[in-house]
Amino acid sequence: MKFKTIEWKGDRVRMLDQRRLPQEVRYLDCRGASSVAEAIRTMAIRGAPAIGVAAAMGIALAAKKARSGHPRVFTKAVERVCREMRETRPTAVNLFWAVDRMEKILGRAESDGVEETKKRLVREALQILETDIEVNRKIGMAGKTLIKEGDGVLTHCNAGALATGGYGTALGVIYAARDEGKKFQVFVDETRPMLQGSRLTAWELVQEKIPATLITDNMAGVLMKKGWVDLVVVGADRIAGNGDTANKIGTYGLAVLSKSHGVPFYVAAPTSTLDLSLVSGEEIPIEERNVEEVTHFRGHPIAPKGVKAYNPAFDVTPHSLIHGIITEKGIIRKPFHKNLQNMFSTPNSKEA
Ligand code: MRU
């Protein structure tokens, strides 16, 4: 990749400001945890794994800059930051997974001492970043066989390097197939209302010189009817124990279309996106964002004043519409409730 989504700079967290893409490649330096939280909320950084990494780095930054007084005072101060991170966005479980990991280390501050805990928190945040990149490469290796020479592959939103520590999940599958020398076509849903498809996925694919065609979300059905789409691969924000998957709004509609046109529909996600504490997707909290994202575009109105609007940022695709979940541990197939559980009891399964 020619860019870094997020970097630890010792006294600040640097991230590529995704609000400005594709017009401008500008990096944002966050010098405190609150500006990291603000960057997550306002989607300067977004995508489930990437916000997990950002939250961890924000906590590490707060810890590093905290006064080295009594461990209890230090712990209280960093706990406040953990709470602040948890309140940024509710749907992607990777955020909570990352904060949990940081809190586990924080919980040992009394016995480990403040200075040691600071170091450990920084190390943990860096580990979360590095592991995410490795995991994405494994997802790519596991999923690349699904793409055949000459295929049309459709994706929604951005589940690429920008949405992760690097490389990407759904786009990781595409990059791995490309690296094998396969030639295929990618169709990119623009992904209203925030346009992660046109602004971010199309931008990544252009950087990588992968043939891509941008479509509006309402064109996917026609493309499938024409027989141009052989495979759909999307990312995920949270996967319940039965395989129901929350992802960017519009994913559910795409899955219904895929089913009715006989197009295989796959989800690519790290195991950190699994939330086996939830029985089904009905329990996944869905973020509702400001309706101005629907009625306006970059401050310009695109709807009449006074009209009501609705803006759920995610939807849930029922497991029955999903062919498989591509993880770093291999492709999980149906029955998901059984195979997802099994995966955690067999550490190196290839195909559950
Ligand atoms: O609102 P966003 O842009 O954070 O939503 C992102 C998505 O829905 C992605 O598909 C998902 O997080 C997977 S990213 C590997």
Number of helices: 12
The description of the largest β-sheet is: 7 strands, mixed
Shape: globular
Bin the helical content: 40-55%
Sketch the topology as an H/E string, one letter per element. Answer: EEEHHHHHHEHEHEHEEEHEEHEEEEEH
Number of strands: 16
The low-pLDDT segments are: 348-352
Bound molecules: 5-S-methyl-1-O-phosphono-5-thio-D-ribulose
Oligomer: single chain
Tell me the radius of gyration. 20 Å
3D architecture notes:
- The chain is of the alpha/beta class and 352 residues long.
- Helices cover 41% and strands 16% of the residues.
- The chain contains twelve helices and 16 strands.
- The chain has helices spanning 33-41, 48-65, 71-86, 93-106, 109-112, 114-143, 170-179, 196-207, 220-225, 251-261, 292-295, 336-345; strands at residues 6-8, 13-16, 27-30, 152-155, 185-189, 212-215, 231-234, 238-240, 245-248, 265-268, 274-275, 296-297, 300-301, 314-317, 324-327, 330-332.
- The protein has a seven-stranded mixed beta sheet, sandwiched between helices. A four-stranded mixed beta sheet has the order 11-8-9-14, covered by helices on one side.
- A hairpin with a 4-residue loop joins strand 1 (6-8) and strand 2.
- It is globular.
- It starts with 5 loop residues before the first strand and ends in a 7-residue tail after the last helix.
- 5-S-methyl-1-O-phosphono-5-thio-D-ribulose binds at residues 46-49, 92, 157, 159, 163-164, 169, 196, 235-237, 247-248, 313.
- The site of 5-S-methyl-1-O-phosphono-5-thio-D-ribulose has 17 residues, from helix 2 and strand 9.
